[in-house]
Amino acid sequence: MKNYKNHFLALLSTLLCISCTDVVDVDVQTAPTRLVIEASLDWEKGTQGNEQTIDLSASTEFFSSGNAPIITGAIIQVTDLNTGDLFDFVDQGNGSYYTDEFIPAVGHRYQLEVIYEDETYIAEETLFAVPDLTVVGQSKEDGFSEDDLEVNMTLIDPEEEGNSYFFKFWKRGDLLPDFEEFDDEFVNGNKVDWFYEIGEDDDTDEKEAFQPGDTVDISFYAISPAYLKYMRILINQIGGMGLFESIPVSVKGNCINLTNADNYAHGYFRVTQVVKTSYTFE
Amino acid sequence: MSISNKTRIPPLIKICIGIISLTAAIFTANAQQSFTINGSITDIDNGETLFGASILLEGTTIGVVTNEYGFYSLSAPSGQYNLIISYMGYHSQVKEIQLNRDQKLNFELAEESTQLEEVVVTGDEPETVVLRKPEMSVAKMNIGTVKQMPVVLGEVDILKSLHMLPGVTNNGEGSGGLHVRGGAQDQNLILLDEAIIYNTSHLFGFFSVFNADAIKDMKLYKGGIPAKFGGRVSSVLDVRQKDGNNKNFEINGGVGAISSRLAVEGPLFKEKGSFLVAGRTSYAHLFLMLAGEENRASFYDLNLKANYELTDNDKVYLSGYFGRDVLKFGDIFDSYYGNSSGNLRWNHIFNDRLFSNMSAIVSRYNYKIGFDMEDFDWLASINNYNLKYDFKYYFNDRFKLDFGASGIFYEFDPGRLKPTSSESSINPLVLDQKKALESALYVNAEQKLSERISLKYGLRYSRFNRLGGQVMNEYLNDLPVRYNSALGIYESGVVIGETYYEKGDAIETFDNWEPRINIAYQLNDNSSVKAGFSRVAQYIHLLSNTTSVTPVDVWAPSGKFIKPQLSNQYALGYFRHINDQAYSVELEGYYKTVDNRIDYIDGSELIGQETIETEILNGESRAYGLELLFRKNKGDLTGWVAYTLSKSEQRTPGGRAGGLGINNGDWYNTPYDRTHDVSVAGTYRLNEKWSFGTNLVFQTGRPVTYPNGQYEYEDISVASYSDRNSDRLPAYHRLDLSVNYQPDRRENSRWKGEWVLGIYNVYNRKNAASISFGQNRETGANEATRTAIFGIVPSITYNFKF
């Protein structure tokens, strides 16, 4: 529902004016640099999930270009709080920290600890089981536009309430992926149909609709309710906040700085189960 | 309805009258024998009652102005007088009277100009009255003034004209509504023939819901709100529909590029009554459809008014409004929203000094969003039923009393999900309906203490019962929102149980005493100073966390978790007429505080939200400013220059939820803060055929929230944002021009036509309605995208009347 509402409000602004947007130069404030922790321990359903990577980088000025500065020299450890197992992530020297010993388990709670420049960051997260996702094919008439192709999927939401999901769609050849999230608040226990369509952007050519031959990679994650809240704000704010959308806010992740609370880290420590698939349009 | 007369007065009113007569006796004890004249003042051409026309006894300071229904009552010692009856834009009348008995005198005034507009008035009541009257912080505009101002897309818009006044701003293009003295949009009580209007705009602010052909006049109280009004802390906009021509059958209409309108009015029952029916519709969607555009937006509305004079002392009025906006986004969504209202009124004159009006009013705002693809509808509404009874007693020249009572019953339906087919994967859902009763009693006195000092003071007692019939959550430690100090965010409290409140029970009851006082001291014939204080309570709140208020935002009543907003406003003003009223200067300063102004926690979800209390923090706001209005009232060139210097800010500490609150609990700008606001409006009348109008507007940019950094996450660049409202959009400014041309009328033809050519935003300034930040999907670079709604917009409209 919330997604629909947001989509509706975003569309309201487009209705107001056709071709009345342009790119302008704007002065913005600059916040102090923060550590960015991208600790996404994703267990692909049907695999062992032992190989995991955590990336560290630094935030930059909003309009600066180029890659984000990498962060090396940190010490990273993940603990399975149910079993007490410790997993060390080894500094690869390029901003990545790697382990091949991780043991994912549904329902387990994990703790992340990052020590960097004498400050300790911690976060906790629980792993949820993901239902199967079935790609049922493609269509034109089931999406937002009847002219554009979309890929259709279905899933069955489990009986119990409180399931949260996150989709990552990435059309091969595109620079950026697309995200969607939802929870079972309005669809609990139902068979849920989902589709992914890229709406043609007439103004900027930034977005091209799917053509036969295009391939899209689909990742479908079961996530924690806390991460859903985080991603909901983040996804909502990607691409900017229009006239009828919420006033943008800072998105705060779950990585707490124990040494200096104000110097919290951006990013998130998530532990998920994921279904990965892809689809090539005919 | 039974027709009352002096001998058949209901007991309660009898008691009231008894008390009043007693008081009156005290006030009149020392006066020599005096007599009263009363009656009504109307337009000679169409019988419309005139609100604010003045009756003055020449050579004295004894005078009075007509009320909303054109009624007046004036008492003076016996003697021979010249009565001067005047109203701006009309020829004054002088009548010699022998005041040796009480008598009823009705007057009909004739318009000065022969323009197409019903009434062309550039100012307010005549100076002598204005300067002496304690009323301040008020802007009264006649529809004629509004019709002369240049407009976007050729549609006359009273809200846009109000934006030209000091202390009144909009939220940028593409958003309706008003912000008065740094107040929010939901803090304005907007009344159309006394019915509450919840959403004032069509097509997100392109047009207002007020059809100029159906409107007679409007009065905006920016402060010094009379005790008869209550329920909103910032302002009252009192818009009144025309009664309808009771002399001749008349048709008004206009054909524009975007919309057209038609109004029909005429007498009923041998001039005992009259009616008016007015309609408007946009048809731009037709063109969009022809152009192959799948998204469409259109609106229509309908105004209705009828009145009938039962006896000399009894008149009934029926008025109605129905408006709809209809949106369609291809096959994805279809939506409608709008206000509807109806009002049945009964004016009764008990005697030559006591005027009364009873109203029964219903109004409703509702919307639907149909999610066609998902096969479900989202519906929400607010309804209210309002009964009020108002009296005005004219004791004597020095003392007048208003008093009355009102009750409003509210029904809030914050939202329901309705699957529209069995294939829908959406489960039905109905959010809790909420009910409340807002009641009030008030008394307000207008008193002339001396030739120089006059006072207006009143007291309103308001009471709000949030009624049961629903379940309310109970939270751990009674905290619906709590601060998660580890993560540094506000989140929903822990639900530990729920309580069901029976239908007969009140969930919560609030009451407030709201004193209002204004004082005027006349320095000399041409100038006066005035001061005022008012306290107002607001019990219902519009929930909106978006940059611009949207049509799908919902209202929520005060209750267990949302406290009533309470404002205190202090104002001081200096008023001066120059050169025999040819020019006037108004200078006012104000300071206003509002307690219990809520703001929303980061990531708040308001729509489809059962527990609003988990999304808000309680705070306060304050606003202060200086307003200057310089007017030229006479001559071929008329108009005004308005300047406002102001500040509007709010503070939302964590309070019991813990933490420092929003923006660390510091004061931050409200979205309606405008440091500078300059408006220039002018009309030049070249001759009988040609006239020209212009608007010039400059406003400091609206406070907004911009990014202050970026970081890489999940293969994209994510923006981090700075403190709420700590940046500003670029300044807003524009110039509009218009030309009115009235061709010669053919002899013996009743048809009068008029062409209006307008250019909105002449120098094509791209004023940002919003600036959003995101990553270019091709280059990956961050960029700022401006949305500017109107560039230069020429328009042409043909208005007619016969």
Automatic annotation (TrEMBL), chain A:
It holds the Pfam family DUF4249. It comes from the Bacteria. This is DUF4249 domain-containing protein. It comes from Euzebyella marina.
Automatic annotation (TrEMBL), chain B:
Residues 311-762 form the TonB-dependent receptor-like beta-barrel domain. One of its GO terms (cellular component) is cell outer membrane. It is a multi-pass membrane protein. Residues 155-232 form the TonB-dependent receptor plug domain. Keywords: Cell outer membrane, Membrane, Receptor, Signal, TonB box, Transmembrane, Transmembrane beta strand, Transport. Residues 1-31 form the signal peptide. Pfam families: CarbopepD_reg_2 (PF13715), Plug (PF07715), TonB_dep_Rec_b-barrel (PF00593). It is found in: Cell outer membrane. The keyword Signal applies. GO terms for molecular function: siderophore uptake transmembrane transporter activity. GO terms for biological process: siderophore transmembrane transport. Its main location: membrane. Belongs to the TonB-dependent receptor family. This is TonB-dependent receptor. It comes from Euzebyella marina.
